[in-house]
Amino acid sequence: MSDSDTLETLLERHGTTYAAEAGITLRDTPQPLYQLLVLSHLLSARIRASVAVAAARALFSHGMRDARRMADATWQQRVDALGEGGYRRYDERTATQLGEGAELLLDVYGGDLRRLRREVDGDVAALREGLRRYPGVGPMGTDIFLREVQSVWPEYAPYLDSKALQGAERLGLPTSPGKLTGLADGSDPAVLAAALVRAALDKG
Asked: Which among 48, 62, 73, 150 has the fewest CB atoms less than 10 Å away?
């Protein structure tokens, strides 16, 4: 099988972003960008991705869809929603971090991550530094956010981090972001990144 065929098969089977799996219709607007930040936070813990996605869906289904509503929710409401999604090991600490992060986003950017985008003006290091100000969003969380947001913030594309490139290597594909996006033939780079990450994580 050629590299192009391998990548085509991968995208057919695993070409769903984590944002889409969590029910986020990603656009360059405040609410879905905030939801992606929450999802990136949850996915960066040492917990199964499916549990993090379920926890994000539970938070959003309980109305915590933007920074204001997250901040206004009680700590117990956040804990209960996380528990409903199966995110029990880290629920209490994460509930605190989500509340503090929402307050910070409201204070600094009025709840709108597009203001951070304008502030950093395409500088990936500055964007990573800005995202890491949020409690619970470390290096892994920033990688997750950048992998997914590149579909609506194209100045960061192609963003294929070490986990995505690990998936490429596992499949015998090139580990150059430029070559991989070329093989993907115009596919959304966020979809490509998610598919490669799934290949890295899938024990099968």
From this structure: 48
Q: Do the beta carbons of residue 78 and residue 99 sit within 8 Å?
A: yes
Residue with tokens 């594309």: 157
Residue identified by tokens 């993907």 is: 184
Closest listed residue to residue 192, CA positions, set 43, 27, 16, 3: 16
Cα dist from 88 to 68, 79, 80, whole Å: 24, 8, 9
Structure tokens at 194: 């998610």
Mean pLDDT by 10 residues, the chain (204 residues): 91 95 98 98 94 98 98 98 93 97 98 98 97 97 98 96 95 92 88 95 76
Cβ contacts of residue 101 below 8 Å, gap of 6+?
Answer: 37, 41, 70, 134, 135, 136, 137
Tell me the chain's radius of gyration from C-alpha atoms.
17
**How far apart are the C-alpha atoms of 29 and 62, rounded to whole Å?**
20
